[in-house]
Structures are given as structure tokens and as C-alpha cells.
Write a structure and sequence with these properties.
single chain, alpha/beta, Alkaline Phosphatase, subunit A, 2 domains, 10-stranded mixed β-sheet, 13 helices
């Protein structure tokens, strides 16, 4: 018996030593941590927003001497967002790194190009799915359509980002507690009439009816969103046929008599506020990912007025989210983009060169493309008053229509925000969110 006990003790010792040598991400790879706390994370992704974009929002909102809500966030680090095979991130590749903590190829969407991946923790899925399995509530807020990767990559895996129907299906059937977006077209079958138009799904699925059968409340307008009862536990918001905004040039929107944003749709801040009301009732905390897509899409169309509207909406959302965090000390707020949309620069020349009351010259030598209030060759924008009460003119200059690497910052507030300093790789966004959720 003594020898048997001795052999067992040796076996236990060897097992413990071997376990200690196994990397953390390989231990219990299929079993996420059980959540015993109420720690929560809000990740806000105003797409395409570099430091230059935020500078433009400061000028138009509070002036050169003022402070935006984004300016007031205490945590700050330089964001490094390169991909495995490209210096500039794609929306889908960047979102995948945020969701999985893995450096992936630029063509990735919840995978590494066409290869299935585990997250950095070893979990077979994204951080959001890991949080859901651990018992936390999850939510997505998107001003674009439901298949936009900035949010969808947290719940969907796909080899081709253009397979919008499949992405929408995966997102809905992952059953987030809250999902707000546009994209009714990808939720209804062909021929089915919805609130905003006809469906386009080729598989015959009606994902809105599917959600209702699963107990979701479905809302379509900002008024219906505001009217949600306090007892709501699961809600699907479908706020437009495609995006909640019309991402075309100023000239095209004027010709078609279209607004920048569809009036029935709530703003990103209104969606986030409603999502927080539902998610914060959950006993084990929550994980919410919010994206303003208009900041990127309007910039990619070189629509300066559209971008400024989207950026101001983003800053209002930052203020709302920061106020929530101040009252909820166990919540981390992270704010960053993964790319610089179209190389925006604020061109603020003196009034002799850029008079307030004269349209910008068609060919301003200081920039490749210059936008004023109504596009090229229109009146310049006026900044909010400076300390002396003067409103100075400026134009928006673009380098092109593609997303670049740019000067991007990570900003943070709340729990663990003090760790946001120095440099922050895109994979570290995942690491800090996971640490906050589970430790």
C-alpha cells in the first residue's frame, strides 16, 4: 500500500509539473472562465477616426481652445494596427484582431484569411462568445448594416466579407441580448416586405421572425426604441433597409434630396444608451461593442459635412458612455479605430487666403481635394469660437478615398484605464478587455 501511495504521489507531482509548463491559452481551451463578478466592458469603435479626424471634430464642436468628450478621457496610448500581411488594416481584419487577440491577414473576418482560429486565450471563438458562455450579457450597436465587420466579426466567422446574408444569419443566431443596426435587406427573404423595403435573402429565412420566436422584442424607429419597457431582456433593433446613413458625396445627396442620416433611425449615442439600460440589469456584467460606421464611410466618399456630422455624433456617444462609466466603476470604456479614413487633414489657413464668405477655389494648391460646407468649391467651414470669440475658417483636405495607417490613439476610462499608456497593439485591445471581463 505504501508503494502504491508513493507511485500515486509521484504521478500527481508529474502531472502538476507538466500542467505548469503548458501555456495558459492551452489549458481548458474549450471551457471559458466562469464569471463570478460584474465587471463589464464597452468597446466603442468610431471607424476611421485618427487624431486628425478628432481634431476636426474639436474645431467644429468646441473650437481650437475647447475640449471634446474624447479629449477628456484619461487613458491614452498610440495604437498600432498593422496586419500580418499589410501595414494598413482593413475593417474586417482589424475587428478580428480586436475580437480574437490574434494578428491576422487583411482579408480575415473572424478567421485568419480562410483558416479557422482560436482566440488568444485558446477559446474556440471570439471574446464576445467567450463572455456569453461565461454568463455575461452581450450586445452590438452598429450604425451601418448588420454585416459591418467592426461589430459582426465579434459573432461571425466567414471566408468572404461580401457574404452579407451568411454574416447576418450568424450574428442573429448567436443570440446577443441586444443588437441594433441597419440592414433589414439581409434579414428578410426575397419578396418579403419589411418596414423599409423588400428582403434580399436567397435562402428563404426570415431572421426577424426567427428572433421574435426566440423571445426578442423588435423595434424599428427611435421612438419605438425609447418606448422599450424596463422588463425588456432581449431586443433586436432594425433601423433602416441598409445603413442608417446615406454615404454619398455632398453633390449626389443634394441631387437626390437625401439627408445625411435617415431621420427615423436613432443616433449611435441613443442606441448605446438603450443598450446599456438592458445590459446593465444583468447580474454577471456585460460586454458591449459599439461602432459608428458613418465616420469611415462618409470620409471614404470625401463627404466632409457627412463626416463631421458622424464625428460629432461619435463624440456625444463618448460623453454618454463616459458618464455611465463614472457611475459604474467596474466598467472599462475603450475607444479606438483601426485605420485612418482617407487621410483627412484640417486645413486652417488665415482669412486672407481663405476668406469666410468666399467659396474655396476649385484647385487649392495646399491640398489634393478640399471640401467646404457643401463639397468642393463651396464656403469653408467655421470653427466654433476660440477664447477671443473669433470663428476661424477651415477646409477639410483629403489624400484620397482609401483607409491608411495614420496617427490613431486608444483612449480609455473606468476600470483598468490606467493601463492604456505608451503603445497599444491591436491584439492588446483584446487582452485588456478580457482581463477586465474575467479577472
Amino acid at each position: 500500500m505504501y508503494h502504491l501511495k508513493k507511485r500515486i504521489s509521484k504521478a500527481v507531482l508529474i502531472f502538476c509539473l507538466l500542467a505548469a509548463l503548458v501555456p495558459d491559452h492551452q489549458v481548458n481551451a474549450s471551457s471559458p472562465p466562469k464569471s463570478s463578478n460584474r465587471n463589464s466592458v464597452v468597446f466603442f469603435h468610431p471607424d476611421g477616426m485618427s487624431l486628425s479626424h478628432w481634431t476636426a471634430i474639436r474645431m467644429i464642436t468646441v473650437g481650437p481652445d475647447g475640449m471634446t468628450n474624447w479629449d477628456g478621457l484619461p487613458g491614452m496610448a498610440i495604437y498600432r494596427g498593422h496586419m500580418r500581411d499589410a501595414l494598413s488594416a482593413t475593417s474586417n481584419g482589424g475587428a478580428t484582431s480586436h475580437a480574437y487577440g490574434v494578428k491576422v491577414g487583411a482579408g480575415s473576418f473572424g478567421m485568419d484569411d480562410k483558416q479557422k482560429i482560436r482566440s488568444a486565450s485558446g477559446f474556440d471563438g471570439s471574446l464576445m462568445l467567450e463572455a456569453k458562455r461565461a454568463g455575461k450579457a452581450i450586445g452590438l450597436v452598429q450604425t451601418g448594416y448588420i454585416a459591418e465587420p467592426g461589430t459582426a466579426a465579434f459573432l461571425a466567422r466567414i471566408e468572404d466579407r461580401s457574404r452579407y446574408e451568411e454574416i447576418a444569419k450568424q450574428v442573429v443566431m448567436a443570440e446577443p441580448d441586444v443588437h441594433f443596426s441597419g440592414g433589414e435587406r439581409f434579414l428578410l427573404p426575397k419578396g418579403a416586405k419589411g418596414r423599409f423595403g423588400e428582403g434580399e435573402r436567397s435562402d428563404g429565412l426570415n431572421l426577424i421572425e426567427w428572433a421574435q420566436e426566440k423571445g426578442y422584442t423588435v423595434v424599428y424607429t427611435k421612438e419605438e426604441l425609447k418606448g422599450l419597457p424596463n422588463s425588456t431582456k432581449k431586443v433586436l433593433g432594425v433601423f433602416s433597409w441598409s445603413h442608417t446613413f446615406n454615404d454619398e458625396t455632398e453633390e449626389e445627396l443634394k441631387k437626390k434630396e437625401l439627408p445625411l442620416y435617415n431621420p427615423q433611425a436613432p443616433t449611435v449615442g441613443e442606441m448605446a444608451e438603450a443598450a446599456l439600460k438592458v445590459l446593465s440589469r444583468h447580474s454577471k456584467g456585460f460586454f458591449l461593442v459599439v461602432e459608428e460606421e458613418g465616420t469611415d464611410n462618409f470620409a471614404n466618399k470625401n463627404n466632409a459635412s457627412g463626416f463631421l456630422e458622424a464625428g460629432q455624433r461619435s463624440d456625444k456617444a463618448v460623453g454618454l458612455l463616459n458618464e455611465f462609466v463614472k457611475k459604474s466603476p467596474r466598467t472599462l470604456l475603450l475607444v479606438t479605430s483601426d485605420s485612418d479614413a482617407s487621410g483627412l487633414q484640417v486645413l486652417g489657413l488665415n482669412a486672407k487666403i481663405m476668406p469666410k464668405d468666399k467659396p474655396l477655389p476649385a484647385g487649392v494648391k495646399e491640398c489634393a481635394i478640399c471640401d467646404g460646407q457643401e463639397g468642393t468649391a463651396s464656403l469653408p467651414f467655421l470653427a466654433a469660437p476660440d477664447k477671443a470669440g473669433v470663428r476661424l475658417p477651415f477646409a477639410i483636405a483629403w489624400t484620397g478615398t482609401a483607409d491608411g495607417t495614420g496617427g490613431i490613439l486608444v483612449r480609455a476610462a473606468g476600470k483598468n484605464s490606467g493601463k492604456v499608456r505608451g503603445h497599444f497593439d491591436n491584439t492588446e485591445i483584446y487582452k485588456l478587455m478580457r482581463e477586465t471581463l474575467f479577472k
